[in-house]
Amino acid sequence: MNLVSLPSIKKRTKRRLGQGHGTGRVKTAGRGTKGQKSRNKVPLYFEGGALPLIKRLPFMRGKGRNNSYRVRPYVLNVEALNNLKKNSIVDLESLIKNKLVSKDAKKDGVKILGNGKLNVALIVKLPVSKKAQQLIEKAGGRVERDAPKDKDT
Q: Fewest C-beta atoms under 10 Å: which of 13, 46, 86, 131?
């Protein structure tokens, strides 16, 4: 094996700053001289002693401040249900099985809205809008809702 035939190594290793005399960077350890950055870590959000951006912004007060935590159900229009078989039961599992909604809908739920026409009689066991209920009943189907559960029991 000759030195000429060895592969060249082009990748340089990262400099290890502040690791003592063995690194070849004595005294200031490659950090320059004095100042906050030479002594310790400076957080990314630090703005040089100025009032930080997060403190310059106003408080979010009032009605809509918790909207990001509100759970919104997936919406599905009535016309998407035309692909299902006649008199089939429409619930969350059947919608996932027929790939009308994703598996994430288990967490947030599904609501059926009344946009479009329905040509198939179906048994729906999901929350629906008033117009969607009219269209389902007009097509010969029905809407079944579970009775609300008591919070005491």
A: 13
**76 & 34 share domain:** no
Instruction: Provide the 3-class DSSP secondary structure of residue 82.
Output: helix
Alpha carbons 90 and 142: distance in angstroms, whole number = 10
Residues 6+ apart with CB under 8 A from 10: none
Q: pLDDT tens digits, residue range 77-95?
A: 999 999 899 999 999 999 9
* Host H or E run for residue 96: helix 92-97
3-state secondary structure of 90: strand
Boundaries of domain holding 91: 71-143
The answer to whether residue 6 sits within a structural domain is no
Within this chain, do residues 35 and 80 fall inside the same structural domain, yes or no?
A: no
